[in-house]
Amino acid sequence: xxxxxxxxxxxxxxxxxxxxxxxxxxxxxxxxxxxxxxxxxxxxxxxxxxxxxxxxxxxxxxxxxxxxxxxxxxxxxxxxxxxxxxxxxxxxxxxxxxxxxxxxxxxxxxxxxxxxxxxxxxxxxxxxxxxxxxxxxxxxxxxxxxxxxxxxxxxxxxxxxxxxxxxxxxxxxxxxxxxxxxxxxxxxxxxxxxxxxxxxxxxxxxxxxxxxxxxxxxxxxxxxxxxxxxxxxxxxx
Length: 237
Ligand SMILES: [Zn+2]
What we know:
mainly alpha, Helix Hairpins, 2 domains, three-stranded mixed beta sheet, 5 helices, binds zinc ion
């Protein structure tokens, strides 16, 4: 294998390496996964808000029940006093009647409130059910996606390491001065060597003078493109 052949191979493997690194970067900033993760966080937050709402409703309902009980007891006391026969004063009688009515109306109002709160509690329950199902589904999808992305990433990392070791091996057996020149051009142009195809430079696509094409084909000297400076590589046609 000539130095030029090695350079040509090195160029190809750098191309592969760049492609794999690019693919890895795209995977690392996986937009679809990011969207899924954001949605998952939002669902979790909604779920927690609903659980808190449910807890508040439960406390509220307990408080209402206690209030109903208090009014029921007071209602009974007023009723018992009324029918005990001990009340003879008309004013006291009216007062007890009014008290009974007050507790009756309060219980009625509280029971309306209880019914409404129970309705709200039921709808919160069904919302919690729905969101739990969504969270579970998304969680399964995310796990699947993570496994998929992880395996793709490890595959790409293997390919990257493979390309790096091939490049290292090729560079170790390549002429050092030529390699330095090649890297100089490559860092400026993105590639350091270009094929000659139909007397045209594969790097800049400019026509190469016939005498240079001939010299390149002889392979005795390294020939650079007069236009872009890339090392010219005569492909076997
Ligand atoms: Zn050129």
